[in-house]
Amino acid sequence: MSERPPAIRLRGATIGYGDVPIVRDVDLTVGSGEAVAVLGSNGSGKTTLSRGLLGLATVLDGEVQVLGAPVGRLRERGRVGYVPQRHSISGAVPATVREVAGVGRLARLGLFRRLGATDRRAVVDAVAAVGLADRLDDPVAALSGGQQRRVLVARALAAEPELLIMDEPTAGVDAASQEALADTLAAISASGTTLVVVTHESAPLAGVLTRAVVVDHGRIAYDGPLSGAAHHDEHLHHHPPERQPAGYRMDQPTVTSGPRTTADRER
Ligand SMILES: Nc1ncnc2c1ncn2[C@@H]1O[C@H](COP(=O)(O)OP(=O)(O)OP(=O)(O)O)[C@@H](O)[C@H]1O
């Protein structure tokens, strides 16, 4: 048995935006090293739950602890990696794949440190892990949407986080790359990293994710083996959402992007 605290611990947690609750009265413990799928229909609250773990949505009631610390109080933020729900990196930023992945590594080091040889190697490894080794020095703007999505995954991997939270990492990613991602996540999981993956398509990652949490109208409707989740989530095969919020900048450190505003959502 691990002596580490649970990676995630929610007790009576209500999470929302402003003073509007979205996820209500949730109890959930994810042990260190677990690999969990968060499933549920569009709008059920999956993203809000994951953003609550990152301090990007408001904890309105109850307790939310991440890696043993109340949310927002974790000092080394690079211990938690996040792949946000975006289909691609919006253009206009003249950065290369290596540079974007490097930003993820900086989140671990603190922004004013420089990348050393070990860090640079971790960045290259992360990019290779998502199958983009041959695109390292290409501008991300020259990549396809699915490839840009993989760069976001590499950015999170580069920090070698203890807890990796991914929102729809396989959306818009082709089958071969999904397989590569599954292999990468399997390796990370085997090394002890805790995985929480919000997804509409658990099949590509079924070999990695063992436990499923199904969110329905802001509450947990099922928590058990992934194999038993399907009939609790009749919307599992719905298409992932199409939203692409404005104002997103890929040069932001991994977990510091602010919550979406109402204005963003209405665009
Ligand atoms: N920034 C926000 N401000 C206010 N309400 C929000 C915000 N983000 C999401 N919501 C609302 O919270 C509810 C749950 O949204 P959430 O994104 O958590 O759902 P989801 O289960 O991840 O859905 P999807 O599968 O479509 O991504 C929705 O009703 C949505 O309108």
Walk me through the topology.
Layout: E1 8-17, E2 20-30, E3 35-39, H1 46-53, E4 58-66, E5 69-70, E6 80-83, H2 97-109, H3 117-129, H4 145-157, E7 163-167, H5 175-190, E8 194-198, E9 211-216, E10 219-225, H6 262-266
Parallel strand pairs: 3-8, 3-9, 6-7, 7-8
Antiparallel strand pairs: 1-2, 1-4, 4-5, 9-10
Helix pairs in contact: 2-3, 2-4, 3-4
The structure holds adenosine-5'-triphosphate.
Please describe what this structure looks like.
Residues 8-242 form the ABC transporter domain. This protein is α/β, with parallel strands linked by helices. It has one domain (8-257): P-loop containing nucleotide triphosphate hydrolases (Rossmann fold, 3-Layer(aba) Sandwich). 25% of the residues lie in helices and 24% in strands. It has helices at 46-53, 97-109, 117-129, 145-157, 175-190, 262-266; strands spanning 8-17, 20-30, 35-39, 58-66, 69-70, 80-83, 163-167, 194-198, 211-216, 219-225. The chain has a six-stranded mixed β-sheet with strand order 6-7-8-3-9-10, sandwiched between helices. Strands 2-1-4-5 form a four-stranded antiparallel β-sheet, covered by helices on one side. It starts with 7 loop residues before the first strand and ends with a helix.
| N-to-C CA distance | 48 Å
Radius of gyration in whole Å, from Cα?
17 Å
CATH homologous superfamily designation:
P-loop containing nucleotide triphosphate hydrolases
The number of domains: 1
CATH architecture assignment: 3-Layer(aba) Sandwich
What low-confidence regions span 5 or more consecutive residues with pLDDT below 50? 236-267
The largest β sheet comes out as: 6 strands, mixed
Spatial shape? globular
Bound molecules: adenosine-5'-triphosphate
Order of helices and strands: EEEHEEEHHHEHEEEH
